TrEMBL record:
PROSITE patterns linked: NUDIX, NUDIX_BOX
Protein name, entry field: NAD(+) diphosphatase
Encoding gene per record: nudC
Enzyme Commission designation: 3.6.1.22
Source organism per UniProt: Nocardia bovistercoris
Cofactor: Zn(2+); Mg(2+)
Length: 298
């Protein structure tokens, strides 16, 4: 029994024009800077918000022209938007993981790009090949060496897979560090020289010992922790095949019925402290929630 996502994952939504052509237009960036908004982000990915709205400073108060320390996020709410790392950010702060219930499309678009870009710049100060210094270019969307070599933001792809039996059961697993009632679907990073489908096969075998088939792509979601892209899949496995946790990441896994999953979704998510609950599922910040909800809705 196949299914599709019944909603766009939360972090895949955006109300920001990424304005790709503006990034390479130094003049346009300079002209937009005096009226631009500047989002300050500390090393923990925290930002300031008031009444559910991100707080942007006036970019012109930070520097007279676009700063090489800032990254251009695009155009939103009628002006250029930038972000900068600020180790001294103080006040009432929040982060992307805590904003599930208050995360609108504008905030999602701003924060996912800001975090992914700033996290990349934190580790990209030197060219990996020659070991020479790099400087930010194109509004923070690339880094270049003195010799002209250009490097673009790195993204780490990872698959996340919902395994079901083709009928009424889904496999959910718990990592060692998670509380006893907290479960989710399985995920893992794509290896060099590996296709996405082969990664699904390998990761599911390594994590729970199952041979999966009928692998289907569902959708994707940026995951800027620090700079990943989650690629969602569904696959079918035999619930009679013994489970084996060979890579040591999974503490336990069980097959749950659709009725049990629906009941867990009604309870809430991982943050819920429901007395007597056997199963708690991820919150909406993760594509895992959308995938489980879509399967449960069949």
């Amino acid at each position: 029994m196949s299914f599709d996502l019944n909603a766009v994952p939360l972090l895949s939504r955006s109300a920001v024009d990424r304005a790709e052509l503006v990034r390479s237009d130094e003049r346009a960036l300079k002209e937009g800077w005096p009226s631009a908004g500047l989002l300050r982000v500390n090393a923990r990915g925290q930002v300031k918000m008031v009444d559910g709205a991100l707080i942007f400073d006036e970019a012109i108060e930070y520097s007279a022209e676009p700063s090489p320390a800032a990254v251009f996020l695009g155009i939103g709410e009628g002006r250029h938007l930038w972000a900068v790392r600020d180790a001294d950010l103080t006040g009432e702060l929040t982060d992307l993981r805590r904003l599930v219930s208050d995360l609108d499309d504008f905030t999602a678009g701003v924060l996912t790009s800001a975090l992914a870009l700033l996290n990349w710049h934190d580790k990209a100060g030197f060219d990996a090949g020659a070991g020479v210094a790099t400087v930010s270019a194109k509004g923070g969307w690339s880094r270049v060496t003195e010799q002209g070599y250009e490097e673009f933001p790195r993204i780490d792809p990872a698959v996340i897979c919902l395994i079901h039996d083709g009928a009424d059961r889904v496999l959910l697993a718990r990592q060692h560090a998670w509380p006893p009632t907290v479960y989710s679907i399985l995920a893992g990073f794509v290896e060099a020289g590996e296709s996405l489908e082969r990664c699904v096969e390998r990761e599911m075998k390594e994590e729970v010992g199952l041979d999966v088939r009928e692998i289907r792509y569902l959708g994707s979601q940026p995951w800027p922790f620090p700079r990943s892209l989650m690629l969602g899949f569904a696959a079918v496995a035999d619930p009679e095949q013994p489970l084996a946790f060979s890579d040591g990441e999974i503490a336990e896994a069980h097959w749950f019925t659709r009725a049990e999953v629906r009941a867990a979704l009604d309870v809430g998510d991982w943050s819920t402290r429901a007395e007597g609950a056997r199963l708690l599922l991820p919150n909406a910040i993760s594509i895992a929630r959308t995938m489980v909800e879509s399967w449960a809705a069949l």
